[in-house]
Structures are given as structure tokens and as C-alpha cells.
Amino acid sequence: FITNDDWQNDDVPEAFIKLTEYSDYGQLEISGCKFINKAVENIIVKGIGEGIHSLNSSYTVDQVCTTTNYPCDEFKGCSFENLYYAIHSTGTEPISPLHTITNSEFINNRYGVYIDAINNAVVTSNSFNLNVGTDSRGLYLNECTAYHVEDNYFTSPNNATPNFGIIVNYS
User: Fold this and answer.
1) Average pLDDT, the chain
2) Distance between CA atoms of 18 and 55, rounded to whole angstroms?
């Protein structure tokens, strides 16, 4: 999934994947995908957009095996680059959807993973390279409970711009 300078529309592009009330159909698996905004000249789309936007939906973001070997010995994870929200998930229902985000790479996004009012989210074994030149957040948990966050790696350039690896707000 790529947005580039050839974007012809005057509107800001929405999410590459948009899920609404998807929990009723099971848990969607998103494996080995790339979500990239390559626009550098087009002011309308530069540094904006969303990779995955979900409302009351269940999904897993994980790596995929790239060989036919058993057991698998080569994997490719998902990557999210130069987006405003790489992953933006919100829950409004009393039963929380399932969220697992693992083995993925987040590069220069304003928000790597933003989870709002979702319980039992799992965010493990990811790398977050925080955005240069903006105040970015790697992982933001807002009003969440019973989450599992482990083995994530956060890097940020050494500059005056405030970047935050993890923010836990009312969670």
C-alpha cells in the first residue's frame, strides 16, 4: 500500500485498511504488508494518512513466512512508514475486540500505534523508529486495561524535538 506524489485527489487519503465492526466476522490477519507514504513534494498527502484504522474490530498484525521450509526459517514483518497514524484503533463497545500487533516495524510515523479504549491488546516484538522533526509517539495507550506490552524497541534521533516511546494515559 503506497501513497506517493502522484496522488491526484484534493482530499487527504483515508486509511489503507479501514475496519468497522469487523469483530463479528472473526479476527482479520494482516501479515507481511507494507504501508508507506512516499510523498515528499505533494503537500496534501506528505506525512499524513493511516495504515490501519479500526473501530470495534479485531485483527492481528504479524509477520509472514517467506519460504516453503518447515519449520519456517525466514520471515517478513509488516512495516509502516511516514504516516500520521500507522495503526489507529478505537473501541466503543463493552466487549473489547482482539488486537495483536507483533513483529512489525514503525518508521517515521507521527503515531506508531494508537489504541483507545480497548482491553487486552497485545503489542510485542516491534521496532519503533520515531519521527524526525515532529513530536511523535511510538505507542499510545489511552483508557486501556489488561494490555500486554513487551520486547518492543524504540529509537529516536538526538534532537530537540520531543518524542515519546510509550504514553499510557488513564490506562
Assistant:
1) 85
2) 8
pTM to 2 decimals? 0.89
Q: H-type helices in the chain, by residue range?
A: none
DSSP letters, 37-80, are: E--SS-TTTTT--EEEEEES--EEEE-EE-S--SS---EE--EE
CA distance 108 to 16: 17
How far is Cα of residue 148 from the mean position of the Cα atoms in its chain? Answer: 16
Residues 6+ apart with CB under 8 A from 25: none
For residue 74, what is its C-alpha cell? 525466514
**Order of strands across the sheet with 85-90?**
17-20, 50-55, 85-90, 111-116, 137-142, 164-169
